[in-house]
């Protein structure tokens, strides 16, 4: 089953002054359950492409279907709602709310999803267990290591049970041991819960774990290969 279907997607920043063609005529087809690395030099358009696939940014041209829904034609309020229910995001800089505990950072999303309090408590615990942090429920981001913060961010991304998670350089701020641990958790979620992952990275050790590697240069896909993860 197709989960991402992007057709002829382009993004040009500053079209009226000094145009930057960040993404150019990209076609992308990803099946449910894939574990895909998006690689390429800095400035090649990885973030822009991820943001457009995830409905955080709109293309200047082209269409994006996520799980059969054409997100590029949804009005903003419907798009926000679709994102909240169907898409998880993980960012390089974790983006946790510093004044909230791990539990509250995740509970907050469940509250947006209108989950009742008792169910919320249960779900937060399940999610934190999945990333090995059930003992850090009441810790604030500042009290956690980078690796632990990113694991909270992954748990938060999974709060709505999305079929797909986009991760933009999720290991960029992690030491190699934490990076490997994070990738192992993502691979486990991919395998056991069939969650599709599309993550950008520079890190060779992370690229090795992917089953498909898509390379972007100057906003264009220059290669798309299947590999055996190691
Ligand atoms: P990557 O994630 O591969 O480093 P980006 O998607 O961040 O690449 O950037 C692709 C190109 O688009 C770069 O030339 C970058 O400077 C440009 N760019 C990204 N975001 C903006 C923006 N908001 N306004 C103008 N140019 C941008
Ligand atoms: P940090 O989070 O401190 O950057 P790691 O993410 O590598 O570092 O994890 C720190 C320790 O937590 C590891 O040595 C490991 O034993 C334990 N740990 C990490 N992930 C899990 C998990 N999913 N389940 C249980 N224990 C874990």
Structure in words:
- The chain has 230 residues and is of the alpha/beta class.
- It has seven helices and ten strands.
- The strands form two sheets. Strands 6-7-8-3-9-10 form a six-stranded mixed beta sheet, with helices on both faces. Strands 2-1-4-5 form a four-stranded antiparallel beta sheet, with helices on one face.
- The longest helix is centred in the last third of the chain and has 18 residues.
- It is globular, with a radius of gyration of 17 Å.
- One adenosine-5'-diphosphate binds next to helix 5 and helix 6.
- The site of one adenosine-5'-diphosphate has 12 residues, from strand 2 and helix 1.
Number of helical segments with 4 or more residues: 7
Tell me the helix content: 25-40%
The shape is: globular
Biggest sheet, open or closed, and with what strands and sense? 6 strands, mixed
Q: How far is the N terminus from the C terminus?
A: 26 Å
Keywords: ATP-binding, Nucleotide-binding, Transport
Organism: Imtechella halotolerans K1
Family: Belongs to the ABC transporter superfamily. Macrolide exporter (TC 3.A.1.122) family.
Domain ABC transporter: 4-230
């Amino acid at each position: 089953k197709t989960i991402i279907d992007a057709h002829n997607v382009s993004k040009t920043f500053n079209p009226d002054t000094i145009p930057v063609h960040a993404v150019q005529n990209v076609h992308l087809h990803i099946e449910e359950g894939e574990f895909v690395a998006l690689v390429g030099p800095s400035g090649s358009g990885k973030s822009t492409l991820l943001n457009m696939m995830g409905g955080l940014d709109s293309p200047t041209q082209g269409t994006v279907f996520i799980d059969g829904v054409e997100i590029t034609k949804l009005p903003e309020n419907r798009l926000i709602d679709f994102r909240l229910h169907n898409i998880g995001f993980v960012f390089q800089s974790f983006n946790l709310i510093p004044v909230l505990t791990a539990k509250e950072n995740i509970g907050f999303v469940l509250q947006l999803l209108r989950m009742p309090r008792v169910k919320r408590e249960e779900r937060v615990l399940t999610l934190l267990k999945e990333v090995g942090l059930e003992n850090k429920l009441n810790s604030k981001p500042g009290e956690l290591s980078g690796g632990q913060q990113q694991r909270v961010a992954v748990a938060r991304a999974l709060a709505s049970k999305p079929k797909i998670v986009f991760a933009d350089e999720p290991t960029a701020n992690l030491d190699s041991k934490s990076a490997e641990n994070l990738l192992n958790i993502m691979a486990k979620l991919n395998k056991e819960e069939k969650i599709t992952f599309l993550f950008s990275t520079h890190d060779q050790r992370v690229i090795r774990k992917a089953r498909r590697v898509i390379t972007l240069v100057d906003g264009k896909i220059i290669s798309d290969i299947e590999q055996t993860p190691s």
